[in-house]
Amino acid sequence: MTTLFTNIKELIQIRDAGITKVSGSEMAVLPTIQNAFLVIENDLIVDFGSMVDLPEINPDNIVDVSGKMILPTWCDSHTHLVYAGNRIQEFVDRINGLSYEQIAQRGGGILNSANKLNQTSEDDLYEQSKERLEEIMHLGTAAVEIKSGYGLTIEGELKMLRVIQRLKKACPIAIKATFLGAHAIPALYKNNREEYIDLIINEMLPTIAKEKLADFIDVFCETGYFTVSETEQIMQAGISFGLQPKIHVNQFTAIGGIQAGVNNNALSVDHLEVLTPADIAALVKSETMPVALPSCSYYLSIPYTPAREIINAGLALALASDYNPGSTPSGNMNFVVATACIKMKMTPEEAINAVTINGAYAMNLSNTHGSITIGKKANFIVTKPIASYAQLPYSFGSNLIENVFIEGKIIS
Ligand code: NIG
Ligand code: FE
Questions:
Q1: How far is CA 327 from CA 122, 265, 344, 355, in A?
Q2: Model's pTM, two decimal places?
Q3: What is the crossing angle of helices 122-138 and 154-170, to 10°?
Q4: Which of 77, 81, 180, 248 has the most ligand 1 atoms within 8 A of CB, as the residue to mutate?
């Protein structure tokens, strides 16, 4: 089936095939065509251009989108959207003065979510997670990475990864699974952390690899969680099972996790709220994508990742949601774009590049996602009538999405 979209006010993020990411000053450039057409055939983009060059074709459908813009769907390269229940009580506790760290130290935080998850059946977890996935699809996301890490037991971690596998099969959105057994040391291993790390490496990983349940390996490399040398040990074990690292680093403290990630060919290093000149220097010589999570900074009132420093150093930057129950209970990538512009001083062009082409890179999805490119998936957002694409972050609380197409089909 062929569908032709006509009179597109502006067709945004058009790229030739083979461009996998944009870095430094290239991030300020967002290629577009005004008054454009777009042709899709089944699940793929097959042609686009200026209306004056519209070829003679016989499509099955013609959709006139006068006044509206079309841009690629969001690529959210960092989420924990498979979780059980919520942490609303911790939210209220923080309002009343406790810090995120204090809540974690008294056994809340990640361990609270792990308790809840281990008491929830796989089917129930699947239903709760599917609802969140459907919500983000309506908000314009059509590729997402989802982590385990709220099990912290063999059964719990496998349950999470099996739920992710079921979501992959049931939903049109592209999903990548990341094994994050090293999210926190469970209470049971508080005085015996080597034993938990041994469990991750020698019991969880082999089973996960055998059942092909994960694409990537993650570690929360942070003071009070996993040290740099533990992170290296776990990344290397993951690599030996074919899982490329994508790691949590520099959220609260800079302890050398970025250098470790780069040395182990990490696909991405995520958070980076605290960044040293040595961290930036390590990234400059690498193919590792820095990923910022502005909704997490917003929700926890912690510093924003210094996007300008990163981009001015010539680096690429991706933005993701971090959707999770404790530090970012939102998977809204429209809010991510707006917050990046408003709080991190990224231009609309930089922010849109960061959540499309660079987000796809951070999930190894560059060949199929992240831009309007012939041969890529017909995944795109049709906006409501808007004045310019800068209105997307400008009208930050409004939903400016009229329709979302995933693999050529409208999400209703
Ligand atoms: O990316 N920083 C580590 N993990 C998550 C939050 C986990 C939680 O609080 O449940 C994050 O922010
Ligand atoms: Fe995270």
A1: 23, 27, 18, 20
A2: 0.98
A3: 50
A4: 248
Query: Tokens for 165?
Result: 């596998």
Mean pLDDT of the chain: 98
DSSP structure class, residue 213: -
CB 375 within 8 A of CB 17: yes
Asked whether 174 lines ligand 1 (CB < 6 A), one says no
253 vs 255: CA distance, rounded Å: 6
Both structure tokens of 34: 């005004």
Q: Is 238 in the pocket of ligand 1 (CB under 6 A)?
A: no
> Is the minimum distance from the CB of 251 to ligand 1 under 6 angstroms?
yes
pLDDT for 336 equals 98
43 residue type, one letter? D
Answer whether residue 412 shows pLDDT above 80: no
User: What pairing do the DSSP bridges indicate for beta strands 61-64 and 44-50?
Assistant: unpaired
Q: Is 322 in the pocket of ligand 1 (CB under 6 A)?
A: yes
- Rounded-to-integer distance, Cα 387 and Cα 209, Å: 49
CA of 382 to the centre of ligand 1 (A): 32
pLDDT in tens, 170-221: 999 999 999 999 999 999 999 999 999 999 999 999 999 999 999 999 999 9
Please measure the distance between the N-terminal and C-terminal CA atoms of the chain and give it in whole angstroms: 19
Could you give the CA distance from residue 223 to residue 243 in angstroms, rounded to a whole number? 24
Map tokens 């042609």 to a residue: 47
